[in-house]
Amino acid sequence: MSAVVENHDHHHGPKKGLLRWLFTTNHKDIGTLYLWFSFLMFLTGGAMAMGIRAELFEPGLQLMDPIRYNQLVTMHGLIMIFGGVMPAFVGLANWLIPMQIGAPDMALPRMNNLSFWLLPSAFTILLSTAFMEGGMPGFGWTFYAPLSTNYPNIAYFVFAIHIMGISSIMGSINVIVTIMNMRAPGLSLMKMPLFVWSWLITAYLLIAVMPVLAGAVTMLLMDAYFGTSFFDAAGGGDPVLFQHIFWFFGHPEVYIMILPAFGITSHIISTFSRKPLFGHSSMVYAMVSIAVLSFVVWAHHMFTVGMPLVAELFFMWATMLIAIPTGVKVFNWVATIFKGSITYETPMLFAIAFVVLFTIGGFSGLMLAITPADFQYHDTYFVVAHFHYVLVPGAVFSIMAAVYYWLPKWTGNMYDEKMGKLHFWLSFIGVNVTFFPQHFVGLAGMPRRYADYALQFAEWNAVSSIGAFLFGFSQLLFLYIVVKAVMAGKKATPQVWDGARGLEWTVDSPAPYHTFEVPPKITEQTKL
Amino acid sequence: MKKELGLLTLLTLPFISSADWLDVNMPVGVTDISEDVFGLHMLMFWIMIAIGVVVFGVLFYAMWKYRRSNNKTAADFEENHKLEIAWTVVPTIILILMALPASSLLKKMYDHEAEEGGIDIQVIGWQWKWQYKYLDEKVGDKPLSFFSNLTTPADQYETNQATKGENYLLEVDEEVVVPINTPIRFLITSNDVIHSWYMSDFAVKQDAIPGFINVAKTTINEPGVYRGNCTELCGERHAYMPVVVRAVTQDEYQEWLQSKKDAAEQIAFLTEKDWTLAELMEQGEEIYNTRCAACHQMNGQGIPGFYPALAGSDLVLNDKPKHIEILMEGVRGSQMQSFAEQLNEVEMASVITFTRQAWGNDRAGDGEIVIPKDIVEYKQKDS
Fold first, then answer.
1. If you classify domain B274-382 with CATH, what class do you get?
2. Each residue's pLDDT tens digit, B282-321
3. Which residue, B129, B48, B138, is CA-closest to B91?
4. The whole model's pTM is what?
5. Does A279 sit within 8 Å of B79, measured CB to CB?
6. Superfamily of structural domain B119-151+166-266
7. How many interface pairs between A and B have CB atoms less than 8 angstroms apart?
């Protein structure tokens, strides 16, 4: 993405060398930084996943002791969520929101720079624990007290989370201010592209829940180092309170990681079906409902803590309700494809796989919502299968789809379509071979976060590990394809995809360093 | 009917070549509740399959029918209110139909009242073992109580040199013995961090939380040995604290109770006996390997940053009273727990003696041994 061409406005082109990236306030540069950072984290967290699957390849401890195993499980979760998926979506937001609403840049460019550069600092702090006595956090990414309060090096974990939270909140403020104030004249809220809508909602969710997470880690820090007893029963505290606070953050967090994916998928499916999205406004209403509901379902993560019957019933029913707006979204995508004129380029393959596999994740999610059955599913591999189905072929596939879809716009070069398709099929097979068998071992009773397991689960775990290696190593192909397209490739037209709609396709490919210095005029004819 | 449904699921799965591979679904279990839960699970499963067939059917049909080579120009339509109302209302009705049986079963599972002729067993999670207290059965003035430790030898999982046994990681020294056809209430709590007591065959999974007592009631229909796990991450040896329940007839249960009570009286006698160093060492090593070595390691070196070394430790070498106190009381704010309830006087004395003698500690320190009477005296002083 260093191939960005400076073709107008001479004194505002990018600086040369490394300082360009350190001091940049340009939304495209910052978007690029976010995307490369998230890819680096994706590989780091992925390497940890490879370690986990290698250890689980057969029963017994072969490669590591359970302390190391727990550390890998914990760090894999933290890195993939806070370092992989979230920054990738922020990177896409940076690149696309200004271009999709006809704005010259983000509203608060210096803050934008800071919110990116906080992230490498946070992850340096978090990962530095690997070189300390006591090592990395090993209490799971959910860091339930009181297990976490007695762990070594938790101050590093707490400060890293604080810094990530500050970064997310600043990024979200930027997104909201940009969308509210910098839309091109005539671009009303209800006309706004769905990716922008999805991010507007996501940003509000982030601002609402990140402070809650900050509160949780601060109380943890106080318990661990300052003698308070927020979560220590022996001191009059309440370990269940921790879980309520954590999941009040945690459930909206889950939707933070999927709403932008809904936006991306809507664009791609419409483009390659060569049809407008079936129901633009119903998609907006569905996303808003999902976001609102996300605040009242948190305790479905805690059905086994011993809540009273009424609470269990309430959280079961509230959780089931989410299936309605989610169904509306899936039906909308299917209706968009219907009577289209469809081609299957790589972004479309990833988008369709997203719809199918995310829906499968939704099915298991609905099963998990059924409290009596959840007593069996809870904390088994059935849950692991469920959330990996919504996060990997869900969120991660949508990010890959977005990269293939907008890469020609970013670099000016087409990626290698054959290689892209190969990457898709390897990932698709890998992901299903990895995670589908986990439904089986989960139902048969294999608990999650186990370094070692009973013999009856051996075969499917071996299958799952083989799938994971296939999926993991296929991502090196992704790196190769992207780097190749950044360097060279067939030149892309401004339109890139004949069915694409939206303002970003009206500017050159690659997009000039500065776009829409004069706002475009939105009329009834503008295809959005 | 339920069993047929399960069988049908299995038939749809490929690669079934050995019995192990058949473990792809939830067990039906051995209680009325677990059978109901299985039925509900299969109902949900088939509803999901039906929705999947319809939605994916339409999707795949459209993907094939409207591919570009077959349909050059796309239609241009948006929104259809009738269709949109339908795909909101129909799922709502399906959800209500799912919520009704789920809610009534949940209500049934939440009946926690004690029943005539039922028994109460307190379950306490420890890092990394379960303690069971039979609240209705007394030994002296205390309830009958014991700890249930993993017995799978370390050479099956750490070094992987021994062949793994049939019940690998699912076998314990003391099984929880309960009568069949009797309402049993498990009163579940924890001594340290959060654990979760999970027995799939009873459809019971309840978190063991310090400061809380959670109730799970079950009535087992068939005798047998049932194996489960801890399902809340509780630290290093989370995977090594299985739950094993042996369900027997009422007569066998009474017999077992009597034998447990007799054994408790035997201990009192053994405490008075004069113990030789060799006897203490032999028993101490066995206890050390099952109870202590997980943290302090077989070689007594511990794990830096987590668990202190015992070999060459000044306290172990030269401070006998403090050494006894730590084992009896535990160390607050650390993972070192109190073993006062877990080990009887003889076991306690022998394991302390072992650590004071092993790994060259006998030459480096004062080499004093601890006998059961020392522990009895400590307890008397304490009270």
1. mainly alpha
2. 888 888 988 888 889 888 888 887 888 998 888 888 888 8
3. B48
4. 0.89
5. yes
6. Cupredoxins -  blue copper proteins (2.60.40.420)
7. 290
